[in-house]
Each structure stands twice: as C-alpha cells, then as structure tokens.
Design brief:
It is built from two helices and 27 strands. The chain is mainly beta and 355 residues long. The chain starts with a helix and ends in a 6-residue tail after the last strand.
Length: 355
C-alpha cells in the first residue's frame, strides 16, 4: 500500500509540473524591425551624377548607391604622353606642386625659334613680320638642315617661330626667309633653334582615374584624366561610384542627380539586414516568464513552416507609451535569410518546459 501511495503522489507531482509548464509557455505577436540605421556619407565633395537607389529598395553588398560627375581633362594637342605623375586617389594640385604638372604631353612641334629682324634684308617689307605667317628656315652652318615654321608671337623687333617641319639640332643658328628658295631680298631675320617645352597638364581636386600612361600617343580631344573636387584623404576610391558595404534596405535618400554634396554629408540612410531583429509586446503578467538570454522560436505568420531560433536580447524596463494595456517591448535577435523582410509579422513562442 505504501508503494502504491508513493507512485500516485509521484504521478500527481509530474502532472502538476507539466501543467505549470504549459501555463508558462508564451506566444507573442511581433514584427521584424531594423535594429539600426547606417548613414552613407559622401566620401568627397562633388556633384552627384546619378542616384541608383530609392527608398524601400533592398541592395546587395557591392551594389552602386550613387555616382559622382567628374571633371574631365582632355588633350589640347596631338602628341605623346611624356610623363604621368598623378594616380587615382592623389590630390591633383599637390602633384602639380611637386612635379610641375599631373602629366605632360610632347607635341608634334618640338622646336621653336627665338628670332629678330635685326639681321633682315634692309627693306621696309622685310622688317615687318606677322603672326600666323609661314616662314622658311635654313641652318647657317649646314644647309642640309632646313625646314618650315609659323610665326606665333611678335614683340617689337623680336618674334617667335614654331617649327612645323625640318631636321634641326638644338642651338642651330638659322636664317629665316619668306620663300622656300631663300631669296636674299626676302630674308626676314635670324634666330636660334630651341626645344619646345612639353605641355603641362594640370587638374584640380582628387584624381579619380588616369586614362593614359607614359609613352601613349594621343590626339587632341582625347581623355587624359578625371577628377573630383576636394581630396579623398585616405578614402580608397578608384572610380566614380559609391557602393553599399553590406546588404540592406534603403531607408532614405537625401541626394539627387545634379546636386552638390560636401565631404561628410549624409547622402543615404540604410538599414542593414544584419541588424534585423524582432520586436514584440510583453504584458506585465508575462514579463515575469521571459528574461534576457532566453531562447525562443520565431515563426513567420505568412508561412508557419519557416521558423528561426532567436535569443531575447532585453526586455524594456519602462512600459510602452500610448497603449491601453501595460506592455513592455521585448527585443529578440535572430539570423535572417531571404524569406524575411522589414515589417513582416511573426509569432514568437517559448519552448515548452516538457521539451
């Protein structure tokens, strides 16, 4: 009889425990919320060219958010790139300060002549020269070195000639004529052959890209480099686009095409998917049955077959405002996947004590 009595008491105790466990099991309605929003700053000042996202759009890591409109520098003449000192990320003006230019172009014209009419034939028409006039040159010490040029500047009795054709040596003393036969009565002066300096190409702001390399042949109008106003100051940027660093949803967009932005301006606000969390309302009575660190089950209201394990991060100490019933906000962390989106309704349950 004593044994039977003990068995009956044990069964009643187990039933009491199981009954209590069922009472402690909670089922809460919640929603998937953005735990944090992350600002996307303008890494450099400039003009926005295109905005690729809109509010509410979901973007992947590496996807373009917006791009800058660059200042483009083109070749002013045909020639050969003689030196490229600037590279992506450099401050174009600092490069110019150090090297004299961001890059140089050696033009097709490589010789010039500093001439004077003091040795011209003594006649009224040979002592006056004109800008744009074609002239003919011959070396005074070697007639095999001759060529053609054009007067580009006149300053009193002195004038400058760019050599367009010919084979000379820097330092050659040449006589200039108005005809290719070198007629004495058409002699208009003498001068010395000098090297034409390469054309210095400069820009302002940060160098985004350089389109040429040393030794390249370029035509007038070819793109040389692109720059943005300001400096990168350590920001690694090899193009004109700013990309998402992680997957997330666009909360707001402050920039628009054609608008100017300053370095550090908040252009876009994003809610990272990694910051997704569930928020649920807990009543004052149920608050005693749930605490930080508890494991819970999160089921999608739209598809109960999909569920996730969650962990209670915290339950607010202060009740929610503006509600008829006293409730407290519970924040639950979990690992989302592609089935989850912000604002999605879910059901949160605590595991049964029997389990």
């Amino acid at each position: 009889m004593k044994i039977m009595k003990r068995v009956a008491m044990t069964v009643m105790a187990l039933m009491l425990v199981l009954g209590t466990a069922g009472a402690d099991t909670l089922s809460l309605n919640g929603t998937v919320e953005a735990g944090v929003t992350v600002p996307v700053y303008a890494p450099i000042g400039g003009t926005v060219d295109t905005v690729s996202v809109e509010q509410g759009m979901r973007v992947s890591a590496g996807e373009t958010l917006f791009s800058y409109r660059t200042e483009k520098t083109y070749a002013s003449e045909d020639g050969t790139v003689a030196g490229v000192f600037a590279k992506a990320g450099d401050d174009a003006e600092k490069v110019t300060e150090k090297y004299g230019a961001d890059l140089y172009i050696e033009g097709m014209t490589i010789y010039s002549v500093s001439a004077s009419i003091s040795k011209a034939y003594n006649a009224a028409e040979t002592t006056i020269v004109h800008t744009g006039e074609t002239v003919y040159l011959v070396c005074r010490t070697d007639a095999k070195r001759f060529g053609t040029g054009v007067i580009t500047a006149v300053d009193g009795s002195n004038y400058t000639v760019l050599v367009t054709e010919g084979n000379f040596i820097v330092g050659d003393s040449v006589t200039l004529f108005r005809d290719s036969a070198y007629t004495e009565k058409l002699r208009i002066g003498r001068g010395n052959i000098a090297r034409v300096n390469p054309t210095a190409v400069t820009g302002t702001g940060a160098v985004v890209s350089v389109a040429v390399k040393d030794g390249d042949t370029v035509k007038r109008g070819d793109l040389l480099m692109e720059t943005l106003s300001g400096t990168f100051e350590g920001y690694e940027m090899t193009g004109t686009s700013v990309k998402a660093e992680e997957e997330g949803v666009i909360v707001s967009v402050a920039a628009e095409a054609g608008a100017a932005v300053n370095k550090g301006d908040i252009v876009i606000q994003m809610a990272p998917v990694s910051g997704m969390r569930v928020e649920a309302a807990v009543t004052a009575d149920d608050r005693q049955a749930l605490k930080a660190g508890d494991k819970v089950l999160i089921e999608l209201e739209a598809d109960e077959s999909i569920s996730y394990e969650g962990t209670v991060r915290y339950i607010a100490e202060m009740p929610e405002e503006g509600t008829e019933e006293v409730t407290y906000k519970a924040v639950i962390d979990f690992t989302p996947d592609g089935n989850v989106y912000f604002g999605m309704p879910v059901v949160v349950t605590t595991p049964e004590a029997a389990e």
